[in-house]
Design brief:
- The chain has one domain.
- The termini are far apart.
- Helix content is 73%, strand content 0%.
- 14% of the residues are buried.
- The chain is built from 3 helices and no strands.
- The chain is mostly helical.
- The longest helix is centred in the middle third of the chain and has 31 residues.
- The radius of gyration is 18 Å and the shape is elongated.
- Helix 1 runs antiparallel to helix 2 and helix 2 runs antiparallel to helix 3.
């Protein structure tokens, strides 16, 4: 077993742990907004770590450009997608958690009926 294989296993292990944390957060958190926040961050980092681990298992230019492309697409699409899901949830008046102190948008965003 080489050092690259050990590092790959560690990266994949941490990535999997982040994905499991993301799944637990999806179940445990109260409203759509906190779920989106936790899932986007944990799943993005988890996917990136798993991709880095896969690159370390099969190093080479062919794997490198695919991993870099996948990481860039993950970094671009995940936050944008979660933003639009949160925006749609807010515009459809999705219920806020009881632990939410205030609504900072406070009606400045029109709902989906207009």
């Amino acid at each position: 077993m080489t050092l690259l294989n050990v590092l790959a296993g560690v990266a994949i292990g941490f990535g999997t742990a982040f994905m499991v944390t993301s799944a637990i957060a999806l179940i445990r958190l109260d409203d759509v907004f906190t779920r989106i926040n936790a899932v986007t961050k944990a799943a993005t980092l988890g996917v990136i770590l798993i991709l880095i681990g896969s690159f370390l298992m099969m190093p080479g230019w062919d794997t490198a450009w695919k991993v870099v492309l996948a990481v860039l697409l993950q970094l671009i699409t995940s936050p944008v997608g979660s933003f639009f899901v949160a925006r749609a949830a807010y515009r459809s008046r999705s219920a806020l958690s009881s632990s939410t102190c205030r609504d900072e948008l406070g009606g400045r965003v029109p709902d989906g009926t207009e």
